[in-house]
Amino acid sequence: MASLGELQDAIARHAGEGFTRTCIPRLALMRRDRIISTSESVYAAWLLVVAQGRVRLMLGPEPLELDAARYAVTSVDLPLGGDIREASPSHPYLGAALGLQPELLASVMHDMGAQLLDRPPSAGMAVGSLGSTLLDPLTRLVQLLDHPRDIAMLAPMIEREILYHLLLGEQAGMLRQLALSDSRLSRINRAINHIRREYAAPMRVELLARRAGMSLSSLHRHFKAVTGMSPLQYQKRLRLQEARRRLSARQDSAASIAYAVGYESASQFSRDYRRLFGVPPSRDAVDFRDRLLGIEA
Predict the structure, then answer these.
(1) What are phi and psi of 86, to 5 degrees?
(2) Among 37, 59, 120, 232, which one has the highest count of C-beta atoms within 10 angstroms of its own C-beta?
(3) What is the pLDDT of residues 155-187, one digit of tens each?
(4) What's the CATH class of domain 184-232?
């Protein structure tokens, strides 16, 4: 059986600073050598594993902290913020992320003979401890980067092993929902995808419910159960994330960006922005660029 130290060593050998895509499909590695506040991003369905250090994730009002040998599973596109809380050059933050593919989950479920039940969706993110049944195949998957010629043959088998153990764990219900094409979770995903495409347009919640094939009350209930927020709150979060990205890139003035992402009032935009990020838009643009450049306040 692999140890946590072996996983840490394998990630450290292949992870550059920040987020590193690998030649293994759907596998990415993370490394940070210092404490840092990262930009909010939309995370799709992933298995996110902390191998060393500590990270704080923000979805709703309550932060979620993950330290070494802990993992999070996300099943829908979630607008998450994250802070690296424990990292240094001698003891960097190390992590791994494996994208979860619904079609592959469904194939593993079929081979397991799992009973395909359309269970009510749980929250779109759940956490767990990295026991030996997950640690061992995950370590072997990352170690394949040392042997590139073996990846095509062995990576798919190891990935199925990881999914098998996830489907036997506490997140089984959520992952089964992700795999089923007409589950409640897949319908919420339809609604989320529409909001992401049309985030700057006025939202018609009744039309959104029809697109998802759900009643209005069912959409509200299950959308909040999965994402922790209402459809309108989700849209607002996307707008503010996009506004922050544009501000950090010096794309335009705060007022122009507010209108571009769908706000009708620059003052309301400024209030919402400050409520989410803790500072006004113009100040955050400067602070965010300084953080990216490593300039201390």
Answers:
(1) -145, 110
(2) 59
(3) 999 999 999 999 888 788 888 877 776 678 788
(4) mainly alpha
Structure tokens at 97: 């992320």
CATH of domain 4-179: 2.60.120.280
Yes or no: say if 272 and 236 are a contact pair by the CB < 8 Å rule.
yes
* Angstrom distance (rounded) from CA 295 to CA 297: 7
pLDDT in tens, 198-244: 999 999 999 999 998 999 999 998 888 888 889 999 999 999 989 98
Measured over the CA atoms of residue 41, residue 47, residue 51 and residue 54, the dihedral's sign is: positive
Tell how far CA 90 is from the center of its chain: 27
Return phi, psi of residue 80, to 5°.
-110, 140
Structure tokens at 162: 């990881």
AA identity, residue 90: S
Tell me if 140 sits within 8 A of 158, measured CB to CB.
Answer: yes
To the nearest 10 degrees (0 to 180), the angle between helices 231-248 and 281-293 is 60
Q: Quick count: other Cβ atoms within 10 Å of Cβ 220?
A: 16
From the DSSP assignment, how many helices (H) and strands (E) are in the chain?
12, 10
Q: Which two tokens stand for residue 45?
A: 């369905």
The tokens of 44 are what? 């799709």
Contact call for residues 215 and 191 (beta carbons, < 8 A): no
Q: Indicate the domain borders of the chain.
A: 4-179, 184-232, 240-293
Under 8 Å between Cβ of 231 and 203: yes
State the burial class of residue 279 (Cβ atoms within 10 Å of its Cβ: 0-12, 13-18, 19+): middle
Supply 126's token pair: 């759940």
Same CATH topology for 184-232 and 240-293: the answer is yes
Question: Does CATH place domain 240-293 in 1.10.10?
Answer: yes
Report d(CA 296, CA 64) in Å as an integer: 25
